[in-house]
Backbone:
């Protein structure tokens, strides 16, 4: 079969609308945080009706807000939430690097720093073991939170609604050890809260064991988790408790660095 040389259209209607929405958001500034519709449309170079339609969509999603009494718009709380994620992740990444390097050199195993993204856990930094590890986890790639050490260390400290969303989405079996029932998942997360660390006992990948501990910030919120992973032949069952205490200790020091005083 001959390959098509046609390139996808970059100026699709959806992309055009997205660009228009970005232009409207960029009309706001620190000096002018509130603007009337007419001024937003003028600065965005759009017809009044188009600007009104886009702002209505942005408002429904929480990206802008409207002050009815003054007939003016301002940036919404959703942008603050997203900005906070960016800032906290940047700070977390910067502060975590020395701890990741230290734990990796000390343990000789792969170390991951992960954050929760919906029902998935995403690795935002890692240092590989010099001995190698047959793992599919890569930076920026999501993995199921319910069957990974990094994910369970995060899920255990989330609101019930978040955990319920995970098991309602389905607990797919990845290995014979994967937890696939809501009752067992709740029990497992209660255990994580009790001992302060999570273990992926070959639940996501056959032959790979992972130990993770939560990282807290200055508001006592669990914002990330730190883990060591390795082949079950190197991280044996009898090694788990000793290694878990060390991971907890390092995660605790990183939490302190981020302002946690618990």
Residues:
């Amino acid at each position: 079969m001959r390959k098509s040389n046609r390139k996808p259209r970059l100026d699709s209607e959806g992309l055009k609308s997205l660009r228009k929405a970005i232009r409207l958001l960029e009309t706001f500034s620190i000096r002018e945080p509130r603007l009337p519709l007419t001024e937003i449309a003028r600065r965005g170079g759009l017809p009044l009706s188009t600007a009104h339609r886009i702002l209505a969509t942005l408002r429904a999603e929480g990206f802008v807000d409207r002050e009815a009494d003054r007939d003016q718009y301002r940036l919404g709380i959703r942008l603050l939430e997203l900005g906070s994620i960016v800032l906290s992740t940047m700070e977390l990444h910067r502060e975590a690097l020395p701890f990741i390097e230290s734990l990796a050199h000390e343990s000789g195993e792969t170390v991951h720093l992960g954050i929760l993204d919906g029902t998935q856990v995403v690795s935002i930094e890692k240092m590989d073991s010099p001995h190698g590890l047959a793992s599919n986890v890569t930076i920026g790639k999501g993995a199921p939170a319910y069957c990974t050490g990094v994910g369970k260390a995060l899920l255990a400290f989330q609101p019930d609604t978040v955990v319920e969303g995970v098991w309602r989405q389905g607990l797919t079996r990845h290995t014979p050890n994967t937890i696939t029932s809501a009752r067992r998942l709740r029990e497992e997360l209660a255990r994580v809260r009790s001992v302060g660390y999570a273990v992926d006992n070959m639940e996501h990948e056959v032959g790979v064991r992972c130990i993770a501990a939560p990282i807290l910030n200055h508001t006592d919120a669990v914002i990330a988790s730190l883990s060591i992973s390795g082949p079950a032949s190197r991280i044996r069952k009898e090694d788990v408790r000793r290694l878990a205490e060390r991971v907890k200790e390092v995660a605790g020091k990183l939490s302190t660095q981020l302002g946690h005083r618990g």
In short: Residues 170 and 224 are 23 Å apart (CA to CA). The first strand starts at residue 34 and ends at 36. The longest helix spans residues 77-107.
